[in-house]
Design a protein that fits this description.
The complex is a heterodimer. Chain A is of the alpha+beta class. Chain A has eight helices and 14 strands. Chain A has one domain: BirA Bifunctional Protein, domain 2. The longest helix of chain A is centred in the first third of the chain and has 20 residues. In chain B, the strands form four sheets. A five-stranded antiparallel β-sheet of chain B has the order 9-8-7-10-11. Chain B has a five-stranded antiparallel β-sheet with strand order 14-13-12-15-16, with no helix packed on it. Classes of the chains: A alpha+beta, B mainly beta.
């Protein structure tokens, strides 16, 4: 017979919500997903430590956020909140770091939707003397390890459809995907206005959903901060990971040429000014360090979206308890 | 003209001369690309629903729409005539605009008429109307189940499924948006 006087230890964070009288709080339904999220973060950290990465923290307030065409930084006093920790992490690589990762908040002004929130958690990692192919191997191992750790399986279901994380990841070049689903090849002839539109309207909705998809080798004009492919300069060594049709991560063989980097920043500054968008100052320390950057691979992965998929939630609104 | 950042659920827009209502709206920005506005829109002329993606740089037409409260007057067989109470202005609305709602119209009922470029394109009835049943099988007294229905006919000829306890001569409340039975109106 049970002794009812003996107090059972109460889990700090009981699965399925509070044990006692449920408080009339709109936050209560979020407790289970917060617990899942916590296990995802632990699994991510565990994988990187196991693979010899060093966790770093770099500034959140930046004087000079990366000048990208369509990424808008949130002003914070006389600084900006970071849209990515990329520039600081590359400076650590230039200083000799070999394998580094970072988990932390990033901010993008004006982004709000099913898959967007102005504040979100980014996972970035970088490897010296590596390319986007090495980063792809990391990504596969990491995603499989995280799924096993938190779901006990790599066979997931997302919104009623299977999502099998192992063994095959479908690899499509941007040229293949556009020829197949949009009827033109943006690598042969790039059309900036049409590229993004057709990517969203025609290509992404048709990507396979049952397996992870790697969309790779972007037109050089959409290289962002990636290098051109050796021997095939019309494409950039950049890929994006899609899970269940949701864009999860963006990876590069990093651009290490300070002259080309400066030219790209200048081009983006010119286009942003023409579109009436704020133009951020150049990060001269980054550009100076870039000359010492070894060949490197790096990636940014949206942790909120990954948790959303693992938790089988339809929207970030079901994931983020304090969403405005 | 609207810019893409004006888009939101419920906004009325115009494309190729056709007015649309935005029924779903989502901000989306791919990877390093430009912002997109994914919308599900309803054609206000024929009710068809389609998906449409707008870019940040797009400008979008603003329709000339006006909504006026008017009273139903009569149906001359071809047109439905509505009157604005204050001005006594009369308008004629084609049967194709009124559609199935003709079964729920009653004299002096106040409806909202939506005009596009001065032309009536939709009418919106009150959400619920009360109608009298003229034909139905005899009611089963005491049977209060509402999940079993029988057919009943309104004085306008419209057929509606009603619970078994409804009798000829009863007045019922109908949801004009679905055309379905809602409840019996107590006898006065």
């Amino acid at each position: 017979m049970e002794n009812q006087d003996v107090q059972q230890p109460v889990p700090a964070f009981p699965p399925g919500g509070p044990l006692r009288q449920p408080p009339a709080s709109a936050l209560a339904p979020f407790l289970p997903v917060l617990e899942l999220r916590s296990r995802v973060l632990q699994a991510i950290r565990g994988w990187f430590v196991e693979h010899g990465f060093v966790e770093v923290e770099t500034p959140v307030r930046l004087a000079a956020p990366a000048l990208e065409l369509h990424v808008d930084a949130e002003p914070a006093g006389d600084h900006f909140l970071r849209t990515s920790p990329e520039l600081h992490m590359k400076r650590l690589l230039a200083a000799g770091a070999q394998r580094i990762f970072q988990l932390g908040p990033c901010f993008r002004r004006g982004e709000r939707g099913r898959l967007h929130n102005p504040e979100y958690t980014m996972l970035e990692w970088y490897r010296a003397n590596a390319t986007y192919a090495d980063i792809l191997l990391d990504t596969k191992l990491l995603i499989l390890a995280v799924a096993r750790a938190v779901k006990g399986t790599t066979d997931l279901t997302y919104q009623g459809r299977p999502l099998l994380l192992a063994p095959v990841w479908e690899r499509l070049t941007v040229a293949q995907a556009f020829l197949e689903y949009a009827g033109w090849d943006p690598v042969q002839r790039y059309d900036a206005a049409r590229f993004d539109f057709d990517l969203v309207d025609k290509v992404e909705p048709k990507l396979p959903r049952e397996v992870p998809v790697i969309l790779t080798d972007y037109p050089a004009a959409a290289a962002a901060l990636s290098r051109r492919k050796p021997g095939q300069p019309e494409v950039a060594e950049r890929w994006e990971l899609y899970l269940a049709g949701v864009e999860i991560a963006n990876a590069y063989s990093e651009l290490t040429d300070p002259v080309e980097q400066r030219a790209r920043f200048a081009d983006h500054a010119r286009q942003r000014a023409a579109a009436g968008k704020p133009v951020y100052p150049l990060d001269e320390e980054f550009l100076a360090d870039l000359a010492h950057l070894p060949p490197a691979g790096g990636i940014a992965l949206g942790v909120d979206r990954l948790v959303m998929i693992l938790a089988d939630l339809a929207t970030l609104s079901d994931l983020l308890p304090f969403r405005e | 003209m609207y810019s893409a950042s004006d888009l939101r659920k419920g906004l009325k827009i115009e494309m190729d001369g056709v007015p649309y209502d935005i029924i779903e709206y989502e901000f989306y920005r791919p990877g390093k690309g430009q912002a997109m506005y994914k919308c599900r829109i309803r054609n206000l002329l024929n009710g068809n629903v389609t998906d449409k993606t707008f870019r940040e740089v797009d400008s979008i037409g603003q329709p000339d729409l006006e909504e006026r409260e008017m009273q139903f007057s009569y149906n001359d067989g071809e047109h439905f005539v509505f009157i604005e109470n204050r001005t006594y202005e009369q308008i004629m609305v084609g049967a194709e605009v009124v559609g199935e709602q003709k079964h729920f119209l009653a004299e002096d009922m106040t409806v909202k008429v939506l005009f596009h470029n001065g032309r009536p394109i939709t009418i919106a009835l009150p959400s619920y109307v009360e109608k009298r049943i003229v034909v139905t099988e005899p009611g089963a007294r005491g049977d209060t189940a509402t999940n079993v229905t029988k057919m009943a006919k309104l004085d306008t000829g419209f057929e509606v499924g009603v619970p078994l306890f409804i009798n000829e001569g009863d007045t019922i409340r109908i949801d004009t948006r679905t055309g379905k039975y809602s409840e019996r109106v107590a006898k006065k």
